[in-house]
Specification:
The chain contains one helix and no strands. It is mostly helical and about 70 residues long.
Length: about 70
Amino acid sequence: MTQAIVELEIRLEHQEAALNELSDVVAKQQRVIDRLLAEVRHLSSMQAQEAETPGSAADEAPPPHY
């Protein structure tokens, strides 16, 4: 009986360690996602501003060698 309890306690400790490790991974991934979302928002706003700017590079004729 005591051996079974010891084995259960060991398994519980391993599960707690795995859970803590997974929690750390999820937190790190969330920070990366937040940073990427901020970057996408920034790039979208830059693209919108560029599209509104008259005489942008898209409006110019290609160079003569094309």
